[in-house]
Predict the structure.
Amino acid sequence: MGDNYISYREENGSINISEDVISGIVRAAVTEVEGVSGLSTTAGSELAEKIGLKTIPKGVTIRFEENKVVTDVIITVSYGCSVVNVAKTVQESVRNVIESVTGFNDTVVNVHVSGISFDR
């Protein structure tokens, strides 16, 4: 992901924002949402990372499609919290942070709940 940028092209030149920058800001915003116990990846990507095939930023992917910033977030939710409410709050939080950081108002945020976390 390190070489991918979301770009603005204007008369005076261009502005390029690394997807890694946006991903880091999104991760910070997600972890602040009450009821989110953490970010996660799929089992296959964890295995690929362990054997050194590729490095995947945990729980967040960012891409630019058809003039939209598309974000996928994979979370675990704390036991006892409403999964739907937590996911909606994450969606809103991520959309707000992307719009404020990039200036893009057309964002798509997909939230994937991969599990429930039981505190011991």
Observations:
- The helical segments are 19-31, 43-50, 83-102.
- The domain at 5-117 is CATH 3.30.70.1350 (Alpha-Beta Plaits).
- The first strand starts at residue 5 and ends at 10.
